[in-house]
Amino acid sequence: MNTAASVRTDNLLQIENVVKSYLRDTKQFVAVRDVSLNLKPGEFVCLLGPSGCGKSTLLRIITGLNTATSGSVLYRGRPLNGVNPYATIVFQTFALYPWLTVQENVEIALKARGVPAAQRTERALKLIDTVGLDGFESAYPRELSGGMRQKVGFARAMAVEPELLCLDEPFSALDILSAEALRGELMELWLNKTIPTQAILMVTHNIEEAVLMADRIVVMGKNPGHIVTEIAVNLRHPRSRKDMAFQSLADKVYAAVAGETRTEMETLGTAPGQPGTTQPLPDALLNAIAGLLEKLAAESGRADLYRMGGELALELDDLLPIVEAGALLGFLSVQTGDLLLTPLGQAYAEASILARKAMLAGRVLRLPVIAWMYETLLRDDNKRVAWSYFHDALQADFGDLTEKQMDIAINWARHAELFAYDDGTGELYVEG
Amino acid sequence: MRQFRFSPAFSQALSFTLGDGLILLGVVALLYAGARLAFSSPAVISGPEISLSPLALPWYALLSVGRMTVAYFLSLMFSLFYGYAAARNRTARTVLMPLLDVLQSVPILSFLPVVLLSLTAILPDAFAAELAAIVLIFTSQAWNMTFSFYQSLSTIPKELHEASAIYGFSSWLRFRTLELPFAAIGLLWNSVMSWSGGWFFLMAAEIFHTGKRDFRLPGLGSYLQTAANRGNLPAVVMGVVTLVVVIVLLDQMVWRPLMAWADKFKLEMVEGEEPPTSWFFDLLSGSWIVAQFGMHVWRPFSEALDRRFQGRPGEKITSPEEGIGDVPPSRLLKSFIGGVAVISLYGGYRAVEMLLTLSLSAWEQLGIGLLATSGRVAASLVIALLWTVPLGVLIGTNRRLANILQPIVQVVAAIPATALFPVLLLALLQTSGGLNIAAIGLMLMGTQWYILFNVIAGAAAIPQDLRSTTDLLRLSALDRWKTLILPALFPHIVTGAITASGGAWNASIIAEHVEFSGQTHATVGIGALIARATSEGNYPLLLAATLILVFTVVLFNRVFWRRLYLLAEERYRME
Predict the structure, then answer these.
(1) B359-575 carries CATH number 3.40.50.1970
(2) A286-429: what CATH class?
């Protein structure tokens, strides 16, 4: 409830009630709704959430690459006009120009700001040295490893001495060891104030990374993107994963992220074409769901979500859809950061392949999207309907994601032997 | 060695849209204007004296290459501007795509008579002929380069755009650092393709003459034709050798070094299996003079250029969201398009008026001619397929053979067929059915390479594990071809055939009606009708024949080839 009068000038960044929506074929698609966020100098803030929660979109609105549909975005008390000149971004896929050398890549950022040639070279070389790439100035990006390329990304971002350093999942494209090393180096530069940056905003889907680095974690949820909660991280640096305080905080964050899925479970959503929102199907393979259930059964039906993710070596983005799907089908439930196997799930985990198919048909038909598709097929004389018919009907609800949703629905229905897809004629059909 | 891959840049539209209709109408109006102007073109045009002395050859070679260079730079500038405008501006895009689509299908040589006649009506003869040649080459080159540039611009990875925006690049800096380098490789490959296509049309333009009008231009093409006309075999040989030498020199000293240099612009972050190499490039990059030039001349120049176009730092940079593609159309643009549409409608109306003056028997002739030419085009395609598919598979799957045969094939393919046409005539006109066979021969010579190269690329792309499986299953040769090779090659054959058929239609214009050694030979066909109408001054017939040819080819492309291509893409993709 901030009013215009209470714009605090000690906030570096202040965004209020930001909404970002797109118009797709007359249907409004809301990427983020009602997001309010503050950032003070000296803070390291993480935007954390599963994919699709709009955190990257929010980052782009904050840096001025996109504009908000409504709401205010204030930097140092003034609204943004175009790209924010005080912010730079380090990208997930490095975004280096392949035809420029390391030195040229760093220098080009300075050149764009009108820095004369001699100074450019001096600053670029100094930064390349700071990130530890001394000797690689004349190398091209294709000659470097992923970790080294990201170092160039960092050098470039810091060359223009930004006030706000934004990181868009900077370590997700790296192997684990390089990512670990780079995290450490960034924290060193940040904590020792070697770089003149005043605040860092990092987008990530890796919970441990967020707890390791941030002073404050902003947890986001999806459908549509919104802020779930903010969690302060008061641990002292250097932080260790084995620390009890670390683990309990990570657990708390996991609960906050996964806790969202429970409320969505309560509403299966409505059938396409009916009033109300049609819930999308989670992108998970039935085999993976079965595997998760079997593992839960082996652990007497209850397991901590955080620990499960670690044991299965699954990232949040991969684990959550499987959990969601399992919950949607009624095989498990999520409570206070724990996974609980339901009696139905227990039965499924212990059943044979044929018995599973029988159970699956019943559970899958409870989902409005699949039920609607099945009923439409049954009503046809030949029990065959064109794929494009379903696609067009679902377009209004799912937009760009329609094809993926069709794939998931057909995949699940095939497993449950409800209906199948004939590629030759492009039709869905119920088998005789 | 790298292959040529000709993948036609099609839109997915299978039917004719309003845009296509407007453009075809514009084409009709233009052709009508040309035909009207033709009435006032001089009745007698005397061509240049072509000397057969070997000393004249370097000069002729220089002239031919000069024409190509001028036309190429015009095409390059055009593609940079038009491609950029289309990428940034939605209205430009809705005009550009159908325009390129249709114009790519139109057989370019069909325009040659009309363009020549209309230009000679308003400009001095020699200048008009040169201009016509350059316009012709430009028309053959500009479209695929524009498409390539436009496609490159629209496929720049989003994050590179975002990086350019967040670091505050001005439009010029972004163009120079991101957009142009990204498009460089595509532009280069398309330039090479355009040049080889351009040679074909240049040679045709250099030898074009009908009746009392001699539109020939001094150059390698006319040299070869004069030599063949007079039966001077030593001169023919020298002419062909010069042609080959020029093409090989260009390849070694211009294209290969450029491709070796442009390798640094590729986006993939792994070293390609066979990066292009060029001895000349290595020579230049090791040279001290070039290094000095780079340091003391090029670098300060480009810095000064950048400073000039940079703009002040800190000015508002358009975000990528707004910058790409959606500038709302200005009223000026809309009224311009409206004006063009009105003029085209008027031109179309007058054209129909002119067409109605033709007698019924003339239309009958046109119909028969069309059928005859279609038959020849089909025959040349079938013959080409019969020999290129087996040979292509052989070369594509056998490394050793490829290393021996490919350089030979590439040099032979680079020789423009239209330059050799007079030689072919010399050999074949004596035999019975002479011109008919020579016409099919020309069609073959110009177009079979497209199919061959695509088949080679397709055969080389058959995954090793599919081939191994076929071997393990011990399939008979027939089964192997039916199950693996032909389906795998299908998309590539279609791609090659589309370009080949376009080339064959083009060839018909100069192949079906020739004046050789003082005699006129003609065969039944629409190309013959066009040439005869030009020499007799029967402009309504010329307009009708040209229009029929254009419409037939465009229709056939849309209805037959496009469908086949989409089928090939969907069903037979190797994925």
Answers:
(1) no
(2) mainly alpha
Total number of residues shown for chain A: 432
Among the partner residues B157, B168, B310, nearest to A83 by beta-carbon distance: B168
One-letter amino acid of B280: F
Nearest alpha-carbon partner for B182 in B70, B251, B262: B262
Question: CB-based contact (8 Å) between A93 and chain B?
Answer: yes
What pTM does this model have? Answer: 0.79
A201: nearest Cα among A81, A1, A60, A347 = A60
DSSP string computed for B73-91:
HHHHHHHHHHHHHHHH-HH
**Which residue is it, tokens 């640094």?**
B264
Sheet (strand A384-386) strand order? A384-386, A427-429, A420-422
Q: What architecture (CATH level 2) is domain B13-267?
A: Orthogonal Bundle (1.10)
- Residue A133 structure tokens: 């790439």
Distance from CA of B91 to the nearest CA of A (A): 19
DSSP A19-50: EEEEEETTEEEEEEEEEEEEE-TT-EEEEE--
Put simply, whether B250 touches A (Cβ < 8 Å) is no
Q: What CA–CA distance (Å, rounded) separates A181 from A168? A: 18
Q: Per residue of chain A (432 residues), give pLDDT as tens.
A: 444 445 556 788 888 888 888 876 666 778 888 899 999 999 999 999 888 888 999 999 999 998 888 898 999 888 888 889 999 999 999 999 999 999 999 999 999 988 888 999 999 999 999 899 999 999 999 899 999 999 999 999 999 999 999 999 999 989 889 999 999 999 999 999 888 899 999 999 889 999 999 999 999 988 788 898 999 999 988 899 889 999 899 989 988 887 754 554 455 677 777 766 677 888 899 989 999 999 999 988 888 888 888 888 888 888 888 998 998 888 988 888 888 899 999 999 998 988 898 889 888 888 888 998 999 999 988 889 999 999 888 887 777 788 899 999 999 999 988 999 998 888 999 976
Integer CA distances (angstroms), B281 to A99, A140, A370, B129, B130, in order:
18, 19, 62, 37, 33
Size of interface A-B (CB pairs under 8 A): 83
Enumerate residues 141 to 200 of chain B having a beta carbon within 8 A of any beta carbon in chain A: 157, 159-160, 162-163, 165-170, 173, 177-178, 181
Residue B72 Cα to chain centre, angstroms: 12
Task: Choose, out of B152, B158, B160, B166, the residue to mutate when testing the contact with A (most A CBs < 10 Å).
Answer: B166
Report CB contact under 8 Å: B168, A82.
no
Whether A88 and B167 have beta carbons less than 8 Å apart is answered as yes
Domain ranges of chain B: 13-267, 283-311, 359-575
Any idea where the domains of chain A sit in the sequence? 7-256, 286-429
Spatial separation of the C-alpha atoms in residues A174 and A171, rounded to whole Å? 5
Q: Do domains B13-267 and B359-575 have the same CATH topology?
A: yes
- Superfamily name with CATH number, domain A7-256: P-loop containing nucleotide triphosphate hydrolases (3.40.50.300)
Q: Contact B165/A97, CB-based, under 8 Å?
A: no
* β A216-221/A27-39 pair status: unpaired
CA angle B52, B127, B511 (to 5 degrees): 60
Asked if ipTM goes beyond 0.90, one says no
State the sign of the Cα–Cα–Cα–Cα dihedral A179, A180, A185, A187.
Answer: positive
